[in-house]
Amino acid sequence: MQFSTDPDVVITGIGVVSPLGLNVTSTWQSLKAGGSARQDITLFDTEGCRCRQGAQVSLPDQTRAQRRLSRASRLALMAAEEALVQAQALGRPLENPISLCISTTGGAMEWGESFLQGILQGKRRHLLSQVARYQPQQQVLDLQQAFGLRGPVTLVGNACASGANAVGHGFDLIRSGMADCVLVGGFEALTELIFVGFDCLQVLSMDCCRPFDQNRNGLMLGEGAAFLILENRAHAQKRGVEILGSLLGYGHSTDLHHLTQPSPSGQALVFAMQAALAEAKISPSQISYVNAHGAGTPTNDGPETLAYLEIFEEHLPQVAISSTKAAVGHTLGAAGCLEAVFALCAARDAIAPPQLHNLLPIPEIAASLAGKDRNLKSADPVMSVNLGFGGSNAALVISL
Length: 400
Description:
Layout lengths: L8 E9 L6 H9 L6 E2 L12 E2 L16 H16 L12 E5 L5 H12 L6 H6 L3 H12 L5 E4 L5 H14 L5 E8 L3 H9 L23 E9 H7 L5 E10 L12 H14 L8 E3 L9 H12 L7 E3 L2 H4 L6 H15 L1 E2 L21 E2 L6 E7 L3 E8 L1
Parallel strand pairs: 4-5, 4-6, 9-10, 9-13
Antiparallel strand pairs: 1-7, 1-8, 2-3, 6-7, 8-14, 11-12, 13-14
Helix pairs in contact: 2-5, 6-12, 9-10
């Protein structure tokens, strides 16, 4: 296998399943228009919860073959197929197998829940098959079997930064010469245990998610999946496929401040963004848009704002910023991948998705928060950032 030194990493396929749509186009059109997917949760019983709303995907009716699959696998398969088809990576022999970098936090936890409920109810039939298929390795096997993927697999599970780190790991595989084509992506299905757990932490908003608002009162949980095909530029050009954009830089850091809260200083996110910008060889003033983590919790958005102030300094008012979690919810292991796709779409259309539900913005970031129809400079790179439980931070720099 021959590789160029320090090869360019390009994006040749993207796929999305979200509460706003079952593909990239429908999701992005709704996102640009200011759509929000908040609704009553119907996937499981929320009786007794403080919050009973979130953002769930309306999947089509199941076929017979899909009945053996978990909801998590169905989300992943739909999004991955869209990306693979766009990249012309299905049914065409490639020189080397496609590697996989996949992120999630819950896997098919709904089957683990069903197993436990069945045991408590004295049921035995089919329980072993459920518990055997709830782990995230099974969803990856479902992906491999559905699309004939035979390359090496990496599973990333470090909370809310998992998706960005999966994309970043794929980036590193190509830059290091260990792969020439990687399917990167994340998936997350809403499950009772995760929903009730966040509700018990009292971090779910009772009305709506208000990122970067002074009166923000919690996040909105969501579900979905997003996948990208990353390639060595020379490999993509040899295949003759359309190049959608480039992944220029990736940075990550850990602050070790608290199990669930970011460091109040925001310094770990600063380090991650600095590393991504340095690898991309660009200055902060060149960034036109940031898809922010923006969870909408009291302890998150303040430190994130401080990080942006330090990175962008006097250029901050010229940078458009929005958190799309206000529209599609916090999708945990899928968030970094979904938001990387949204950032790419923003660069492609030269428009930032608007910041929803922000009535009284944090003053230091008010001028940056994107309103409807905020245009971007089409030639400028964009950034997507994520923060996770345990202090994990990640940043991606993307351009056309």
